[in-house]
Amino acid sequence: MTDKHDLIQPDRGQPATPIHLVDKAGLDDFIKGLSAPQRAALAAQKFVGDGYSHAILPDGDGWFVVSGVANVNSLSSWCMAKLAEVLPPGTYRRAGAQPGPALFGWVSGQYRFDRYRSDPTPDGPRVLLTKDVKAIGPALAEAAAVALVRDLVNTPAEDMGPAQLEHEAQLIAKAHKAEFKVTSGDALERGFPMVHGVGRAAARSHAPRVIELHWGDPAHPRIALVGKGVCFDSGGLDIKPSSGMLLMKKDMGGAAHALALAQLVMQAGLKVRLHLVIPAVENAISGNAFRPGDVLRSRAGLSVEIGNTDAEGRLVLGDALARAGEETPELVLDFATLTGAARVALGPDLPALMARRTETAADLQAAGKAADDPCWPLPLHDGYREYLKSDIADLNNAGGNGFAGAIVGGLFLDKFVPEGTDWAHFDTFAWRPAAKPGRPKGGDALGLRAAWGLLQQRYG
């Protein structure tokens, strides 16, 4: 993605095309203020004030835009995003008021992933002015974080394997003078045995590793961000069908979320001691692939029987969560494209949220609603822990009955987080199967802004 920092600029009275936002309740009054030619132009374009619709009206030698929104007094992040996609390149301002939360959607709507196009189509820029100068930085930072998630997820696995994910994390660490560490090879096998077990079948160029970043004053509250970095998931020996593999470049979407959230934390200078942990692997197939029925030891000391090699994400996260817990953080947030069951239950738009503390779940849900990044809570129901029982090990990595798959995945992870730790888990899709205004088809951040809102409230 190209740099978008010029897409929002301070309004100092420079020439700009006005954008009038109207809802259906105010449409009649708006029409009364138009000239006869303008009313005719509005009617010709069949504008009735529907959300995301717009019309271009003549104004002397120039023109202006009218666009429909649900409520002019309560704008969403996305209410002007469609305009940012379809209006001619130029400079614009909202007439009579400031764009507010629509600043984020204006930038997000101009995202393009054109890395592999030999002749990218020039598009824009479309610049939006605002007098609320203090809102520019946060909007651009959030849009950049979302663009980072999209870029990483959209990149094919051949170019976004564990080594490339390490490279991206290292660039961000260097930019913010963070401590950076990578564990691989024999040290990985000793220290993160489940990460090694899942990733050992991959080619040497995609060898497994654990990426860690530390940042901030050690005297500040410790928080940990953990992200599932399965850069491609074949399913292992429990191999997926071809249709199931088609989107598996996105199985590192949890790592992309955690990395983008870490970037936001460091950019904003939150008063925290940040610990980022990303287990980066490819779940491949070869003669040394881990097998159904194998028993893997974990960093936490628990033994895990493999009921399904396609339930590998929880294995690598188990070791990563155990590592995060060793630093005694007061809050742990993890992101993972963990279960298809979460998508069956909630569809592609809503990340499943599981948290040990009801107040944390409520705060995350409220932050998501405020940021137009909704998530939905599911319970960590104790009665389903029995689904993870093993006859020969401490637990099995797969529930055998097909019930409550998302919750069972969360309960597995819960075993690796120290008791008493405030922990929340996002089972996110990290993908948008159909475009919406400001949200193109492809990789996307789902739950990122909700988590960022919580961290700002607690540590901002």
TrEMBL record:
InterPro entries hit by this protein: Leucine_aapep/pepB, Macro_dom-like, Peptidase_M17_C, Peptidase_M17_N_1
Keyword entries, A-Z: Aminopeptidase, Hydrolase, Manganese, Protease
Any one GO molecular function term: metalloaminopeptidase activity
Gene Ontology cellular component annotations, sorted alphabetically: cytoplasm
CDD domains in the record: Peptidase_M17
UniProt xrefs under Gene3D superfamilies: Leucine Aminopeptidase, subunit E, domain 1, Zn peptidases
Every Cytosol aminopeptidase domain range: 308-315
Source organism superkingdom: Bacteria
Family the UniProt entry places it in: Belongs to the peptidase M17 family.
Name used for this protein in its record: Leucyl aminopeptidase
Organism: Novosphingobium arvoryzae
Lineage of source species: Bacteria, Pseudomonadati, Pseudomonadota, Alphaproteobacteria, Sphingomonadales
